[in-house]
Specification:
Elements: E1 9-20, E2 23-35, E3 40-44, H1 51-59, E4 67-77, E5 83-85, H2 91-94, E6 102-105, H3 119-131, H4 135-148, H5 154-157, H6 167-179, E7 185-189, H7 197-214, E8 217-222, H8 225-231, E9 234-239, E10 242-248, H9 249-254, H10 259-266, E11 273-274, E12 280-281, H11 309-313, E13 319-322, E14 325-327
Parallel strand pairs: 3-8, 3-9, 6-7, 7-8
Antiparallel strand pairs: 1-2, 1-4, 4-5, 9-10, 10-14, 11-12, 13-14
Helix pairs in contact: 3-4, 4-6, 6-7
This protein binds adenosine-5'-triphosphate and magnesium ion (MG).
Magnesium ion binds near residues 51, 52 and 189.
């Protein structure tokens, strides 16, 4: 009998605090999620719900000194089989994971690429660092990496600077950089939101192919439920710093339990709105997250069409609908 495999990443009851000039805030509280090897977990929720803060906590990149993990654990299963709680690893120790076992790509590649180095040089530098290759070998590996992410004419493009490339090509370069160390976990934070729809589809297909070929776990952060439907195996929905629902992708779309998830899905896809900044935003749910943060009860209650008085009073716990489906709503059985 095969032993049950430990999840690649398992976050349990994570709480993050930021000390700000106006006092501490807790942008992430009680977040639990998991990513399995070779699978994609999508983390969804509207702007400000705590998705990026969650990913920064995993990477050990919370802004210091005022951001810190208050409680909870981030268990990561290493290549050598060891399981470590990343929440307890000191900043220096995180360098052993970041870039080598866990890599991250962001929405805007320009902020992560060095404008004065060619893309070939940047990838070569990365692979020399991680694979301890010599100069020539690293250069040729860089060209291979550009080929891996389907950049045509890789040998010539390796000599180009980031500003000479289109947004889609730059995102491919970011993915090549991330893949250069064969990470076990790839965190992708809105990697396609800045791209137009056809390029977006190509990048999604690329990430998906790399996941399959490398048995890599992917934590894919997005506003866009349309994207989720295409690539996710498991979906975790956040609202105001909390997980409100987690389920397998089909289950989530066919049997959403939380009123917030239902509202998100009912806005799909024809009614998808385009935000002022040109991003696609799926939600047209009245109200905003901000006003409800300090309420004692359910954080979604002030915007929820199903809320009753009791919802304002008691804070709901995550409840198991099924062994793989969880919802944070005291009324889910009645809806
Ligand atoms: N460096 C910071 N200092 C203070 N507060 C912060 C900082 N970074 C994020 N926050 C706050 O934490 C909350 C969660 O932010 P986060 O960036 O995780 O949201 P998000 O879900 O990624 O949103 P988006 O979809 O817009 O990227 C927000 O209220 C935000 O204002
Ligand atoms: Mg974000």
């Amino acid at each position: 009998m095969a032993l049950a495999q430990a999840p690649l990443l398992e976050i349990d009851q994570l709480e993050v605090e930021f000390r700000t000039e106006t006092g501490p805030i807790v942008p992430v509280r009680g977040v639990s999620l998991r990513v399995d090897a070779g699978r994609t977990t999508a983390l969804v929720g509207e702007s400000g719900s705590g998705k990026s803060v969650t990913s920064l906590a995993i990477m050990g990149l919370l802004p210091r000194p005022f951001g810190r993990v208050l409680a909870g654990s981030i268990r990561f299963s290493r290549r050598n089989g060891e399981v470590v709680d990343l929440a307890t690893v000191p900043p220096r120790g995180m360098r052993a994971f970041r870039g080598s076992e866990i890599a991250m790509i962001f929405q805007e590649p320009m902020t992560s690429l060095n404008p004065v180095l060619t893309i070939g040089e940047q990838i070569a530098e990365q692979v020399r660092l991680h694979l301890r290759l010599g100069r020539e070998a690293a250069k040729s590996r860089a060209v291979d990496m550009l080929g891996l992410v389907e950049i045509p004419d890789a040998r010539r493009r390796a000599d180009e600077y980031p500003h000479q490339m289109s947004g889609g090509m730059r995102q491919r370069v970011m993915i090549a950089l991330a893949m250069s160390c064969s990470p076990r976990l790839l965190i992708a934070d809105e990697p396609t939101t800045a791209l137009d729809v056809t390029i977006q589809a190509e990048i999604l297909a690329l990430i998906d192919r790399l996941r399959r070929e490398n048995d890599m776990g992917v934590l894919f952060i997005t506003h866009n439920l349309g994207v989720v439907a295409e690539i996710a195996d498991v979906v975790t929905v956040m609202y105001a710093g909390e997980v409100v629902e987690t389920a397998g992708v089909r289950d989530l779309f066919h049997h959403p339990r939380h009123p917030y998830t239902r509202a998100l899905i009912s806005c799909l896809p024809e009614h998808a709105l385009r935000g002022e900044d040109g991003r696609r935003v799926v939600q047209a749910i009245p109200g905003s997250v901000a006003g409800s943060l300090d309420a004692p009860g359910c954080k979604f209650a002030p915007r929820c069409v199903h809320a009753v008085d009791a919802c304002q009073a008691a804070h709901p716990q995550l409840d198991a609908v099924e062994p793989t489906h969880f919802v944070r709503c005291d009324r889910w059985r009645a809806l």
